[in-house]
Amino acid sequence: MTSSRSFFSRGTVILLIGLSNLAGCAPSRTVFAGDAAAAAGSAVVAVLPVDNLSGGTAPLKVLRQELIDRLKENGTTVLPDAELDTFMSRHRVRYVGGVDRGTSEAFRSETGASAVLVTSLELYNESFPPRIALTARLVATGGDPRIIRMESTAMAGDDRPGILGLGLVRDPRVLRAKAVNRLADALTGRDAGTGEGTTMRPESLYRSRVLDPARRYSVAVMPFHNTSDRKHAGEILALHFIRELTRFGMFDVIEPGVVRDDLLRYRIIMEDGVSMADAEVMFKMLQADFLLSGNVNDFEDRQGSSGAPKVDFSAQLLEQKSRKVAWGMDSRHTGDDRTWFFDVGKVNTASGLAAATVRGAIESFGK
Length: 367
Hints:
Layout: H1 10-22, H2 35-40, E1 44-47, E2 51-52, H3 60-73, E3 77-78, H4 81-90, H5 101-111, E4 115-125, E5 131-140, E6 147-156, H6 172-187, E7 204-207, E8 217-221, E9 225-226, H7 233-248, E10 251-253, H8 256-265, H9 276-286, E11 290-300, E12 310-319, E13 325-334, H10 350-362
Parallel strand pairs: 1-3, 1-4, 2-4, 8-10, 8-11, 9-11
Antiparallel strand pairs: 4-5, 5-6, 7-13, 11-12, 12-13
Helix pairs in contact: 3-6, 7-10
């Protein structure tokens, strides 16, 4: 088998060339060795601390370091921690769940980083069966902090128990390593199949004729209104919509750090979701064709090895010109909705279930 330290997959080279093109006049650094490196040029990624949306404690520093180690194995040059710490202290960066325009420009001009990696931990549980869910996105630095690539993974120790339980993963450290490696490989183009997975159709779906599959639109995903018992469920659902919209190719998704910064700047507080008055302001600020918002009614992970996760949410896409809903969906699913013999097809995490449902909903844009 070809050593991962010596050669680059085609997807990795493409991604690195993209980062190099974004670098502009950033300070030059020697990043890679070999012909692929020469083609890719200089590309440095700043890896932010992990944003904890799990609602519990987790080894965030360990997760981040394991992710950095795998990215380096895959040929990515990472901004040294000393430089990152100095930058974050100088600019008083506290929020690590996104990148606003000012911070993005400063990253490019002061550190030479071509991209920032934003990582969110959605689930972390070390009790049997261990479970973990992660989402990460590469955001270009400079005046246009756009999303270059976004990937996610959700795993449980009993996803593939096999005969006599031989496939069970009991050690949370082993599961964590598998999840981190899969995420890093997907971000660098080494695992082309990571983005695919179970697809579940929403219970109800509406789409107007205003959406043209041949056009490309800009869309801002607003924070989802969360009425579930799960803290941060609204942010998690928004991330899954951002990922699938980014992957679909019909939309240019505005970096959520930019959306958050504008909400704070204009002191917009959406306690009960997005009002029409809020939408008017956001359309003007973001210059987006659409705003996507939604509600989370239930987002529940199973307890222990029994039961199944549940998700219940809705989403709407508001058009800028007409101020009308161009697309909407409602979904209620459990992890065992599509289970066959011996739990084949069962989804064991709420994040995985949400990803499957959102994936099925977004696919409707192309039909």
